[in-house]
Amino acid sequence: QVQLQESGPGLVKPSQTLSLTCTVSGISIETDQYYWSWLRQSPGKGLEWIGYIAYSGSSYYSPSFETRTSISRDMSKNQFTLHLRSVTPEDSAVYYCARDPPGGGYFDEWGQGTQVTVSS
Question: What is the phi/psi pair of residue 89, to 5°?
């Protein structure tokens, strides 16, 4: 059974870097042809895709986030981590990690989501 679990701070100050970790169980994040994404949802904006890190370790980001985002991974812990720099209150949202399976185009496994608030 595949499970994804987000973890990280619920409150971040403006201008700081938000770091969230997704711990994956039931499958290695190095498994061929799987991609591991971060998304977020805030009121009035809908679901936004932020970026992914691939099974190979390469990463790709939405143009909306690419200048201040990176995604890294720790294969020994089977985790991948989102780093979002220079946050503002507009970055307050529920953040999700999700799996994009071979063939792509959709997400078949999701974490439960974690609320992040950016406030001083």
Answer: -55, -25
Q: What is the mean pLDDT of the chain?
A: 96
Q: Which two tokens stand for residue 63?
A: 């143009």
pLDDT digits (tens, 9 = 90+) for 9-45: 999 999 999 999 999 999 999 999 999 999 999 988 8
DSSP, residue by residue, the chain: --EEEEE--SEE-TTS-EEEEEEEESS-TTSTT-EEEEEEEETTTEEEEEEEEETTS-EEE-TTTTTSEEEEEETTTTEEEEEE-S--GGG-EEEEEEEE-TT-SS--EE---EEEEE--
Tally of residues, the chain: 120
Task: Write the single-letter amino acid at 41.
Answer: Q
